[in-house]
Design brief:
This protein is an alpha/beta fold and about 250 residues long. The chain has two domains: about 5-125, 3-Layer(aba) Sandwich (Rossmann fold), CATH 3.40.50; about 140-250, LytTr DNA-binding domain (OB fold (Dihydrolipoamide Acetyltransferase, E2P)). It has eight helices and 15 strands. The strands form four sheets. Strands 2-1-3-4-5 form a five-stranded parallel β-sheet, with helices on both faces. It has a five-stranded antiparallel β-sheet with strand order 10-9-8-12-11. A hairpin with a 4-residue loop joins β14 and β15 (about 235-240). The longest helix is centred in the middle third of the chain and has 22 residues, at about 105-125. It is elongated, with a radius of gyration of 21 Å. The N and C termini lie far apart (about 55 Å).
């Protein structure tokens, strides 16, 4: 699969080094380079690349501001490029495909491009015809999602929402566990899935976990107003202080 990339970094040597590495990979085309965030916004909007390699630490308009400055339809896949090795959480908060610590290596960049291709393929193969359950299946008479399409190697598995026990996010991935103890992984944001599920049936416990209310077996209070929830399949999840009030209101009052 061909990949069109934009590289944005205010440090010319670092930008040139990354461009040179990218050009070693077959099928990768450098659509444009940008020396600052303002230029990055412009070239992304005009060139419409598949992926943007963004330096987080650009002056004036940094990598985060670049994303904020792009309309949703203009946003490509994003790879965060940083001189610091503690930015992974921030990168995945942005739903970035990956993050690379400078200086990148050819092997590390190859892994990143593999992830980019997988994401592009998932959009082409699943998000249009197969992921209708996540995008187009809602209508006025049935406002909540009732099935989740999951792309396997040679087929698409359709999982009824009623069989879903929990959804747990891990970076750009979402791990789904079913009543039958099946575990499936999709590329989707937890907050987007949550918005499609009936809040009377599913409860957000913390930043990274959403559970089926009917699958909650016990709730154990902890100090500081927090809880641990144990599900019927023996999974355990911590409840954040922010969500503890909702848990009490939803489950712990007659």
């Amino acid at each position: 699969m061909p990949i069109r990339a934009v590289v944005a970094d205010d440090e010319r040597p670092a930008r040139a080094f990354l461009v040179t590495l990218l050009q070693r990979f077959p099928g990768v085309t450098i659509a444009a380079e940008a020396a600052d965030g303002t230029e990055a916004i412009h070239v992304i909007q005009t060139q419409v690349p598949d992926v943007a390699f963004l330096d987080l630490q650009m002056p004036d308009v940094d990598g985060l501001a670049v994303l904020d400055g792009l309309k949703r339809r203009h946003r490509p896949l994003v790879v965060i490029v940083t001189a610091y090795d503690d930015q992974a959480v921030k990168a995945f908060d942005l739903n970035a495909v990956d993050y690379i610590t400078k200086p990148a290596t050819e092997a590390r960049l190859g892994e990143t491009l593999r992830r980019v291709r997988e994401r592009l393929e998932s959009v082409d193969d699943v998000d249009e015809p197969a992921a209708a359950g996540l995008s187009d299946a809602v209508n006025a008479s049935h406002p909540w999602l009732d099935r989740i399409p999951i792309r396997l190697r040679h087929e698409i598995l359709v999982v009824p929402v009623s069989q879903l026990v929990s959804a747990v996010s891990e970076g750009e991935l979402l791990h789904l566990t079913t009543i039958a103890q099946g575990r499936h992984t999709i590329t989707h944001r937890l907050k987007n899935l949550e918005a499609r599920l009936d809040p009377q049936r599913f409860l957000r416990l913390d930043r990274g976990a959403l559970v089926n209310i009917d699958m909650i077996a016990t709730v154990t209070p902890l100090s500081g107003g927090r809880f641990i929830v144990r599900l019927k399949n023996r999974q355990e999840h911590n409840v954040s202080r922010m969500q503890a009030r909702l848990l009490r209101r939803t489950l712990l009052h007659l």
